[in-house]
Amino acid sequence: MPTYNRADLAFERGEGAWLWTGDGRRFLDFGSGIATASIGHAHPHLVQAIAEQAARVMHTSNLYRIPQAERLAARLVETSFADSVFFCNSGAEANEGMIKAVRKYHAEQGHPERFVTICFEGAFHGRTLATLAATGNEKYLAGFGPPVQGFKHVPFGNMNALRDAIDGTTAAIMVEPIQGEGGVRPASLEFLRQLRAAADEFGLLLALDEVQTGMGRSGKLWAHQWAGIEPDVMSSAKGIGGGFPLGAILAKERVAQYLKPGTHGSTYGGNPLACAAGNAVLDVILAPGFLDGVDRVARHLWRGMLDLAHRHPAVVEGVQGAGLLLGLKLRPEISNGEMQNAAVAEGLLTVAAGMNVLRLAPPLIITEAEADEALSLLERTCLRCTPSQARDAAK
């Protein structure tokens, strides 16, 4: 179906942060499948775990115990705020389940009228009907009938607007610590703390969408940990499986206890193969020093991008984001699509984001040398995109 505007590239193999096409062209992958190939391509430990599990049993269904899922859930609980985990297949499913958990919690508390989740302008929570409504983007909603009820949107980072939106129907606040699709815009740590305080004040649940920001991308396992807060429920996906489809809802017991048999489910979610992949990814990310390395390389890349922006003011307005989820905010006359295509021509893969931002979300295993290589390719990309009058003035 004509749902994608695909680039004319087909990759035959990958290794680490690099991809090769069938005709031998090599690309530095700073998109990583939209922040999904978290430990790079063909990581030996992940490849081995998937192959060994596939040779044993790939799928049984949740009618039976799944030891791989039990182990992964226990490890996620141990390294997070959560008491239990529900596994699914994608970020949209995780967010959909999180919305259901929020509504079920208030209904079981005797307040079924509290079903409205406050979301933020610029959010992206998925492509199902409910998560489209939570996203609130008119372009994505157009043509799909009346939006699902139960969502309000306020400006990102605006506590006054948030507090004004709270009423007797409000159930939760749902937020991405860094808006990825919405322009790689990080919430300030103070804003996240204020959201936690407001949720406590009004008896709301704080629901964090860490589909793109979790699993080490910020330099901590979960991005909200930089703010020193805990949500009540959280979604995870993308990097959790290293490229294998896997999503998860993590929740405190006071929320999770109401998702009893029959209230939610998934055929594939948490099957042996997916959770073998998830455990392998966690082995890598939780290894001593790994997250410190992510933070170090991310800061090195950030400094290089600031320098790039300083040298190319005719193309780049600024740098935004956090960890290894960074963006170049481009000048209005330079489209992010144009910039993305120019980067491909130089051998660098990136991802366009909202607000005319070029998004960089490389595998977490990149080295400082690979960050420098990306900066060199971005330098040439900026030169390609510099308006001719600016080039003449520079001469």
Automatic annotation (TrEMBL):
Pathway annotation from the record: Amino-acid biosynthesis; L-arginine biosynthesis; N(2)-acetyl-L-ornithine from L-glutamate: step 4/4
One Pfam family named in its UniProt record: Aminotran_3
- EC numbers: 2.6.1.11
**Annotated binding of N(2)-acetyl-L-ornithine, by residue:** R127, S266
Cellular component GO terms held in the UniProt record: cytoplasm
Question: What UniProt keywords apply to this chain's record, in alphabetical order?
Answer: Amino-acid biosynthesis, Aminotransferase, Arginine biosynthesis, Cytoplasm, Pyridoxal phosphate, Transferase
Cofactor dependence is on: pyridoxal 5'-phosphate
Query: Where is the protein localized?
Result: Cytoplasm
Q: Which domain of life is it from?
A: Bacteria
Cofactor stoichiometry and binding remark:
Binds 1 pyridoxal phosphate per subunit.
Q: Which residues carry this modification: N6-(pyridoxal phosphate)lysine?
A: K238
* Residues where pyridoxal 5'-phosphate binds: G91, A92, F124, D209, E210, V211, Q212, T267
What this protein catalyses is: N(2)-acetyl-L-ornithine + 2-oxoglutarate = N-acetyl-L-glutamate 5-semialdehyde + L-glutamate
UniProt-recorded Gene Ontology molecular function terms: identical protein binding; N2-acetyl-L-ornithine:2-oxoglutarate 5-aminotransferase activity; pyridoxal phosphate binding
A GO BP entry is:
L-arginine biosynthetic process
Task: Provide the family line.
Answer: Belongs to the class-III pyridoxal-phosphate-dependent aminotransferase family. ArgD subfamily.
Under the subunit heading, UniProt states: Homodimer.
Q: Which additional comment does the entry carry?
A: May also have succinyldiaminopimelate aminotransferase activity, thus carrying out the corresponding step in lysine biosynthesis.
UniProt protein name: Acetylornithine aminotransferase
The species is Belnapia rosea
Q: What is the lineage of its organism?
A: Bacteria, Pseudomonadati, Pseudomonadota, Alphaproteobacteria, Acetobacterales
